[in-house]
Write a structure and sequence with these properties.
about 525 residues, 7-stranded mixed sheet, about 25% strand, globular, disordered N terminus, binds adenosine-5'-triphosphate
């Protein structure tokens, strides 16, 4: 293994390994695992620390390449995490593609022709303003420093000052006056939370796209980007899909896929990652009808989040103060994380900006002939764009429950993950009470009968109490205990995760009982 031409192992031998790494990474893309988690936990938020530890300890989320101390803002999903995320994505896909006759799917490549990103505006303007503190060497997003300051002012009852600060920021950013933004930070008295000084560098625009090279011969190789959003794969395929699936406007194209952003500050666990997954739908409409469709999708998407079991009071709309270059209306759906209300999904009225730009640069017509009005036009677009990882984090935060159970000397804390059963990574655990008397054989038979329908766990070691606890910690809605009575009357006990109540059920009814609760249809009924 080597970085450049230098072998890491050579350095390790000379005991300068740590220093070498520190030098090499200068702005620390590699940080120690401890730091990684401390950073994630250190977001002035109580509660989030337990959730992040829980996610790691019980097989939901691990830092990427952990044995090398992790890679900042890159994470891997463990055995239960991957199931939860798969269920979440499946639910989104079905709600979009299955429930809507006029929405179809697509799976476009991560690599796209470089001109795609010129047309979309990403080459020229997909950047964030960054600023460093010279004393702590910590890097910040200038706009986030100002937004946080405005939030503090608002909390102190100085709403007018907060509004003015945000207005000034928007004006300076629009004018690309970076010196003005720096001065605003200084004038607002913003200091670095680490060094406590206002010794700031200039503000610079930092493009968030990752680039690499395609082609094996260095001279012929050309620069190419890892897509920063999945939407452009949909736009460039607009006519392919419209023609081959014989779609009529209004119609939508849905896609789930990886996106990559070299985020300046990425330290809120899986909230802000450098490699993440988006679930996006672009809905193509007649020009002039955008506001009614924008309202339509806003309501549909909010309902979807509620149907997952997120309480109404933990969700809200937040209209964008500053619209992106392509939008004429934009709103975020925000969820109340332990560190405040934050965006989990964006709904944007993107006008005809993307299709027009691609039409211009590619010199290929991207028009639709509308038979009902006998006219050709470039459709307008409403986009719904959700982050699978952020929604996953939302589910973890919403589902993480700590309650006190028992009384007196028996009182103890019970932790469980209250996911909607349709989302739970494991639907049921089959637990023979003891590892003898033929109970494991019955358990194994139940497992074999149900394994084609549900994701199950079979466990016959340790006390039943410990096994229940273990299932609570990964959010399994049903524990099925096989006991001696099972041998007599072919019934088992079902223990329900949320209430801990137990009921006796016939083995032959198990499939129906579980199916009723874990079916995606349960969620769809709410939509
Ligand atoms: P933010 O303002 O938080 O950077 P954004 O407005 O740039 O987000 P969009 O470009 O609208 O986000 O992307 C749509 C969705 O993709 C977001 O609502 C979020 O759920 C998800 N997303 C965006 N950036 C990231 C990221 N770095 N890590 C994880 N999810 C992300």
């Amino acid at each position: 293994m080597s970085i450049g031409s230098i072998s890491i192992f050579t350095y390790k031998k000379h005991k300068k390994f740590e220093l070498f790494i520190q030098d090499y990474v200068q702005r620390s893309i590699v940080i120690s695992l401890q730091e990684l988690f401390l950073e994630a936990m250190n977001e002035q938020n109580f509660g989030i620390k337990e959730i992040i530890s829980h996610a790691k300890e019980y097989g939901f989320v691990y830092p990427s390449s952990e044995i090398y101390d992790g890679l900042q803002a890159v994470y891997d999903y463990g055995p239960y995490g991957v199931e939860l995320k798969k269920n979440l994505k499946e639910l989104w896909w079905q709600a979009m593609v299955k429930l809507n006759r006029n929405v179809v799917g697509l799976d476009a490549s991560i690599f796209m022709h470089p001109l795609t990103w010129k047309a979309s505006g990403h080459v020229d303007s997909f950047s964030d303003p960054m600023i460093d503190n010279k004393d702590s060497n910590k890097r910040y997003r200038a706009d986030i420093l100002l937004e946080d300051k405005a939030a503090t002012l608002a909390e102190e009852g100085k709403q007018a000052d907060a509004d003015n600060l945000l207005k000034d920021m928007a004006r300076l950013l629009d004018a690309e006056d970076m010196e003005g933004v720096r001065q605003l930070i200084i004038d607002a008295g913003i200091i670095c939370p680490i060094s406590k000084t206002s010794n700031w560098t200039d503000v610079r625009q930092f493009n968030l796209m990752f680039s690499t090279q395609i082609g094996s011969v260095a001279d012929d190789a050309s620069d190419i980007y890892l897509r920063p959003e999945t939407a452009q794969g949909i736009f460039v395929n607009f006519l392919n899909v419209q023609k081959t699936a014989r779609m009529k406007v209004p119609f939508g194209i849905a896609q789930i896929g990886k996106a990559f952003r070299n985020e300046i500050v990425a330290r809120q666990f899986i909230f802000r990652m450098r490699e993440f997954e988006q679930m996006e739908m672009q809905f193509f409409i007649r020009p002039g009808e955008e506001m009614q469709w924008y309202e339509h999708w806003k309501q549909i998407r909010l309902k979807w989040h509620k149907a997952l079991g997120i309480p109404e009071e933990s969700l809200k709309f937040h209209d964008h103060d500053k619209l992106a270059h392509y939008a004429n209306a934009a709103v975020d759906i925000e969820y109340k994380f332990p560190f405040g209300f934050k965006e989990v999904e964006g709904i944007h009225s993107r006008t005809d900006f993307d299709l027009m730009s691609h039409q211009k640069l590619s010199r290929k017509k991207l028009q639709y002939f509308d038979p009902t009005i006998n006219k050709n036009y470039v459709p307008y677009v409403i986009e719904t764009s959700a982050g699978a990882d952020r929604l996953f984090f939302m589910l973890l935060c919403n589902g993480y429950k700590q309650v006190t159970v028992g009384e007196g000397d028996d009182e103890k804390q019970r932790t469980f993950l209250k996911f909607h059963p349709a989302l739970s990574p494991v639907k049921a655990a089959i637990l023979p009470l003891v590892k003898k008397d033929g109970l494991p054989e019955i358990g194994q038979k139940i497992y074999d009968d149900l394994k084609f329908d549900f994701n199950l766990i079979y466990e016959d070691a340790q006390s039943i109490g410990k096994r229940y606890t273990r299932q609570d910690l990964i959010g399994t809605p049903f524990c099925i205990a096989v006991d001696h009575q099972t041998k007599e009357d072919e019934t088992v006990t079902i223990r329900h995760r949320d209430t801990m109540e137990q009921e006796r059920v016939k083995i032959t009814d198990l499939k129906e009982v579980i199916e009723k609760e874990v079916s995606i249809k349960n969620i769809f009924r709410e939509l």
